[in-house]
Amino acid sequence: MTAYKDLTKEELLDLKNGLTKEFEEVKGKGLKLDMSRGKPSKAQLDLSMGMMDVLNSGTPLIGEDGTDCRNYGVLDGIKEAKQLMADMMEVSVDHVIVCGNASLNIMYDAVSRAMTHGILGSTPWAKLDKVKFLCPVPGYDRHFAITEHFGIEMINIPMTPQGPDMDMVEQYVNHDESVKGIWCVPKYSNPQGITYSEETVQRFAGLTPAAGDFRIFWDNAYGIHDLYEEEQDCLLEILAECEKQGHPDMVYKFSSTSKITFAGSGISAIAASEKNLKEIRKSMSIQTIGHDKVNQLRHVRFFKDIDGMKAHMKKHADIMRPKFETVVQVLEEELGGLAIGSWIVPKGGYFISFDALEGCAKAIVAKAKEAGLVMTGAGATFPYGKDPKDSNIRIAPSFPTPEELMTAAKVFVLSVKLVSIDKLLEQAG
Amino acid sequence: MTAYKDLTKEELLDLKNGLTKEFEEVKGKGLKLDMSRGKPSKAQLDLSMGMMDVLNSGTPLIGEDGTDCRNYGVLDGIKEAKQLMADMMEVSVDHVIVCGNASLNIMYDAVSRAMTHGILGSTPWAKLDKVKFLCPVPGYDRHFAITEHFGIEMINIPMTPQGPDMDMVEQYVNHDESVKGIWCVPKYSNPQGITYSEETVQRFAGLTPAAGDFRIFWDNAYGIHDLYEEEQDCLLEILAECEKQGHPDMVYKFSSTSKITFAGSGISAIAASEKNLKEIRKSMSIQTIGHDKVNQLRHVRFFKDIDGMKAHMKKHADIMRPKFETVVQVLEEELGGLAIGSWIVPKGGYFISFDALEGCAKAIVAKAKEAGLVMTGAGATFPYGKDPKDSNIRIAPSFPTPEELMTAAKVFVLSVKLVSIDKLLEQAG
């Protein structure tokens, strides 16, 4: 393969002609494909249908400790659900509050609460002139949307293969007291699939924030979402690490079963220090009488315990693995050596991150759409939707069927090629 | 019956002696009774066990319009759940957003959102020197807890048999721009069981608030919670009324199935004008990807439609009616004519409100506790937990069994009598 940049203008134009014909053919098929969101596929959702049978009119909906799960009460989760989520989150049960159907909502509430009430006695953020959050990029658009919604200034922190650039993180956190938080997806990061290295986690835990109310927003969304049994990324547990380094209150850890059982009908949890949880419970007791305990019970009865949950995740992996491999294979076969894009091959999570030539991402997404393939909007992986290099594209291979995915991947690489050629021609002048 | 105040000191002392013996006997029984919270009883919860059977692993969890309820998506509720909640709330489906398991959470979020973002372009309340809410009293402690949590000043508005004192409401709302809201439980009010009269609702709809971002927080928690089929209170629909009077945006209406199916595992909804809903959806889209659609589907499949839901409510009424009647009967038989307390006999809802002699409520609740009966804390029905007259006690007859309830009611009246005698003796000097 010759890198596109080494081709002559004539060669590029020739190539373009051929690819354009190919593209027009694909376009003519009237495809309707979607690689935009990290949605589980029908086959994955089917894995959890048994959850609809574990409770029925003959089942007493009574928790281990006698709690009638149908009634009011129990603010922070039934005992057995706390245990399950604690095991999943690798923390002790005292460090967990089980919440409603979405960890996103817990994160939103955490920021909202800090805005109106501060954290552990600090000034409410809404009363400060300036509040900033660090945002490892590329990252998760819904995280950035929360901080944007509350008028919090977001600062891009480049990702490295070991996680966020920790020199930069330390520089900001330890010296700027307006920096109040950082968004992290520490395992199989969204969208790159990078798992923070041991050193990275230790440096996180070793931060000495200028702001006493600085919090690490540790969204471990893909903690058990490995693709390969024999080759799993390993993430150091942050709560224990923070405690070890004398900063037990510095982190909020989030997780949910959204991509384990039913997206949108799962259970979620926050893990944090006792002090943090006490404050959260206090505010939660104003907000709700309690979350859906019947759904908590349903999850526990379905999985029984963490081993059951992990066994279940292997079935997910069996569905996801070939999809990831298809996309990676197409990328490698079609783009390998062309030097018009790069990607990381993840060992878990929900995404593949693609970096196009600078200034090409938007055009590629638009081109793909022309042929009926919806991708995540270019820029979405950056705060304010602004990718300074217009280069990153998030690929979400989970939702389409394997057949659709093969077609989608081909439409994608075709779009990458065409837009890249145009870019190179433009640069050649 | 002679009113206690007409008895001589000696007669009161005599009476006290006898009642004290009675009380000691009851105390000796080591009772453990609870009339403190508006929790459905086991028998009521059993009514909804069929809900656990309507979805199973063989049921496609697909909505009317093809939505896979198991997956992400659909911010404001599946079509059929919106229809059900709209019918229950007596509004059109366009005016409804279906949310999670608790309307309390929607109310909290509404206040929280106004604090950080204002309402329809107004200044965020957190940025104002003073924000006030009107609180019809006695009222619902969890409402007051929300406004207290956000540092909003609460102003007591006396209830009348027709609803809140509307002269006072108009005076405040129409002339004080720091008054941003009022908490209402318009049908079978908590705790008095009063339904706002037609004139009251019309005067609400006719308010001309000094603050453009004033909102009526209309918590129609007991909209279909009638005790008697033939004798139901009728409440004018507030959204339509507000629209008619040219103030469509002035009201947020809340409801849930918490006391229809499973408390804590129901579905909730907010109804409001298009403009309001647009703003709420925008903020909700940051907060969550969507609420639990499987539970929405479960509710619709169980009830089918509003008629099914209403038929279900008759079964609740059959359980609740004798309980209310037991309490009222004991109150009438034991306290009638004694002039040491008054109460309203409600036709629905969850509570009976008891007004003791001034300065006696706290002592009565404490006395009852001595004999093993837990009542709602005296003062709880007022903002800041402060009943200026120390007179109001909320009786929640729903949770105990009928047998327990008879005993509980007797312990209660015994406590009322003893504390009242002490009060009268004290006043006699």
TrEMBL record, chains A, B:
Alphabetized SUPFAM superfamilies for the sequence: PLP-dependent transferases (SSF53383)
Matching Pfam families: Asp_aminotransf
Q: Which domain of life is it from?
A: Bacteria
GO MF term set = transaminase activity
- What is the protein name given in its UniProt record? Aminotransferase
Whether Transferase counts among this entry's keywords is: yes
Q: Which UniProt keywords apply?
A: Aminotransferase, Transferase
User: InterPro entries annotated for this entry?
Assistant: AspAT_Ic, PyrdxlP-dep_Trfase, PyrdxlP-dep_Trfase_major, PyrdxlP-dep_Trfase_small
